[in-house]
Amino acid sequence: MLAAKISRRTFLKASAAAGALATLGSGFTVLPKVRPVEAATEEKVVPSICEMCGVKCGILVRVREGRVVKIEGNPKDPQANGRLCARGNAGMKTLYDPDRLKSPLKRTGEGQFQPITWEEAFKEIGEKLKELRHRYGPQSLVWLAHPELIAPWEKHFMAAFGSPNYTGHAPTCYSSRNVAFEQMYGGVPGTDYANVRYYIALGRNLTGGIKNPDIQKIVAAKEKGAKLVAVDPRLSEFAFFADEWIPIRPGTDLALILAMIHVIINENLYDAAFVAERTVGFEELKAGVTTYTPEWAAQITGIEASTITRLARELAAAKPAAVVDPGWHAVTGSQYFNSLQTARAVAALNALLGNLGAKGGLTFPPKIKLGDPSPLMGPKPQAINAPRWDGAGAGKWALIKAHGMIQLFPQRVKENDPYPIKAVIINHLNPVRSCPDSQAFIEALKKLELVVAIDIQMNDTAYYAHYILPESTYLERYDPIMTVGNKVILRQPAVPPLFDTKGGEEIIAGLAEACGLGEYFRFTLEHYNNALLAPLGLTQEKLAQEGVAEVLAEKPDYTKLNTPSGKIELACPAFVKVGSTLTPAWEPPKVQPKEDNFRFIQGHVPVHTHTTTDNNAYLMALMPENELWIHPSRAAKLGIKSGDMVEVASEVGKVRVKARVTEGIHPEAVFLAHGFGCLVPVKRLAYNRGANDSMLIPIMAAPISGAAAQCETLVTVRKVG
Question: Full-prediction pTM beyond 0.85?
Fold first, then answer.
């Protein structure tokens, strides 16, 4: 497949893997030193929850003389287990970022803002929301978010306002995976990484996308002898760490999994008892994969048939402690038009291994019975009759009401379809750089009558807002409680807000009061948390002492799943109803690269989280910009060497970025790390560093799942300097 074999040692010298692997042994990455404080100084340790990524590890925040001096993993937390990644360690540099937002701002011109008071901001925004609701209806307001702990408050606000248009980031991350497992398993299971004996990741870059608890567990599994296999067009951080790297042709993972199913069924390697007792549709699945032989898949994937057969046999031999990871953002999540079929095939293959509920297999979390806060939350909002702005939940999109299609926002604004969208509130999200076609999103924001951004920093989206409402950082605020396994965890402030900022619940309640919805928010966050904690015999005040409490939790019942049959549905009629196949079936990627272009693939890196950490001094020191990965055989034809400036162009945009010539990328593809290319001058560290991958990705919605299909993008590359 590749022009030449590559030495792992050689590649590491030039790879970002070094940064990821450095965190694996001790859980810490070396960071710039904090000025020492005299030992005699009184120290306060505050347990809380990190927010440097979406995992939300438990932390211990050390405070001296009112200043955060160190952040550590909380050993009582089931996720951190006393360790943090580089991002978690760097949290205080987000708190003390001199460029962070310090007060509410009102737009006065292109890139120009003036400080205003909270009272003024709420009053003016509230008046405009009331005006738009009267003129166009409540559905003219859309709320876009990267759902965090405050999400129930956001949804309550939108329900009270009368709009169905609360929309998260799922289509750019995990929607295909969720839709597949929700219909086939009744929910999305996790992986028992600590006890797995054979593990296959399809583009899931565990040590690059860093989910702290998963990394700690998979490292422990490898130390106990587990075999780890990375199937990835790129020698990612995890591919480097794994025992075997399979450099597959991009977008063809579905063929590989279908062929592995074929082998496991036809060689009677599946768990027959589990399949008979806990699944429906086996005969249909068997018939459906008849033609998907390893020889067939080899022509599509570029992987030898003997390798495909070997992987299937090795995986089956380790069952039930064997897993093909359901994935996250990768090939089963959002990257291809066939991501849904790939996720369905992965779900089916895991079922054949009989691993659901088994040690080292797939697991559902235990359930903690929390209290009901709804009696606190005012009158019951009136029923909403308007359809969602993106069509999710109806017709061919019937299965994705919970996920939506955020990437279609620019089109819907432009077309006024199915009705005019006139206002948007954006919280914890930067869609100008996280959604496809950045320029289209900017143009959509310019058309709206009201754009409100809630964030801790002036990101590329807030830069086009009419009003910016600064939220306090996670080290300065409370949030609704979180549950993980059999534990409840509290985020609480380690220090008071440094500037004129507010917690998310205060901002939402202030907006509600200003637009005439105050009766829905006559309660505090402490009231809300106490209502949730009441059945557990806890209060927010009690929980604050340790930050983490172990409680009784109900174990999942794997014999009665939340599906129509109560079993895993290998043959799933729900997909037929929306125009798909009864069992997983081959679908090619939407686009195919030719000799004069490349498939553009993108992904995450160990030391940054999307676009939220691009101005963090510690993390920028570790990785200040991204580079375009290109294979030597293709680079030579284009006259490109490592360090050369290249132009990458697609049908919707172009960027300039430094090249990185490496054998660690499939020749048909180029790769660019997500999260760089900030064009907001006030973010002085991030400004104009690297390239924004979203500038290149056209707006698409994959069938059934509505995924953004970011890797169905073709680009050309040329040297420009």
Answer: yes
